[in-house]
Specification:
Elements lengths: L6 H12 L7 H9 L20 E4 L2 E3 L2 H10 L7 E5 L5 H9 L2 E6 L2 H13 L5 E5 L12 E6 L8 H5 L1 E12 L4 E9 L2 E10 L14
Parallel strand pairs: 3-4, 3-6, 4-5, 6-7
Antiparallel strand pairs: 1-2, 7-8, 8-9
The chain binds S-adenosyl-L-homocysteine.
């Protein structure tokens, strides 16, 4: 971490915004200490990287608040050998955090320019193990299924059914579910053909647009 002018701010972010608010999965905390979040913001906006709120990244999209990234990652209960699918690459930051913990990460993004930027960000941050694919993530990515964990990082009216069928037995899915203005974080755990739903905090995400999400307008 030599010559990183942001390191002190990043460590403070992890302590003040994450540890103090109850994030306790050490793998998540270490990943967020290590990944240089300022490399995932548009040039000129690096100063915003460690603040306690979401930041616009262009194309009407946002990089989520650090606490929400941490909470969603913790809820996924990731293991090193897990195969993980993310829907909504955005800046690539959430995928980078997952890749620090789990070996195989596929991230789907519907806007080609956003996907290209996410790939550039991941390269600059020297993160390996993430495959970005331009696709409608509401239908998932059956080619590499089943997944031990699936994370949706855009707000959906309901959990897209193709994602449930691409979840491994014992797999976890986390998604913001609700209307366009407010959603709740939902976790679904698969036990055979049974799906157990739990609901967590209220959140606000940009819409998940696609066949099993909101209509494009
Ligand atoms: N995880 C991101 C933040 C996601 S912002 C990060 O760490 O920065 C939500 C992203 O979901 C946007 O980039 C948006 O274009 C994308 N998105 C919306 N609907 C989608 C869909 N059906 N499939 C794939 N990506 C989608």
């Amino acid at each position: 971490m030599m010559n990183d002018p942001f390191e002190a701010r990043r460590l403070a972010m992890v302590n003040d915004q994450l540890r103090r608010r109850g994030i306790h999965d050490e793998r998540v905390l270490i990943a967020m200490e290590e990944v240089k979040r300022h490399l995932f913001l548009p040039v000129g906006m690096e100063e915003e990287a460690y603040l306690d709120h979401p930041v616009p990244i262009g194309h009407g999209q946002t990089i989520s608040q650090p606490y929400i990234v941490a909470l969603m990652t913790e809820l996924l209960q990731l293991e090193a050998t897990d195969s993980v699918l993310e829907i909504g690459s955005g800046s690539g930051y959430q995928a980078a955090i997952i890749a620090k913990i789990s070996d195989q990460v596929i991230s789907l993004e519907r806007i080609p320019e956003v996907a290209t930027r996410a790939e550039e960000n991941l390269r600059r941050a020297q993160i390996e193990g993430v495959r970005i694919i331009v696709a409608d993530g509401t239908v998932g990515y059956p080619e590499s299924s089943p997944y031990d964990a699936i994370l949706v990082t855009a707000g959906a009216p309901s959990v897209p059914s193709p994602l449930l069928s691409q979840l491994a037995d014992g797999g976890r899915l986390v998604a913001p579910i609700g209307d366009a203005d407010i959603q709740h974080l939902v976790r679904v755990v698969r036990h055979g053909e049974e799906f157990v739903f739990e609901s967590f905090e209220p959140v606000r995400f940009v819409p998940l647009i696609g066949q099993f999400g909101w209509q494009d307008q």
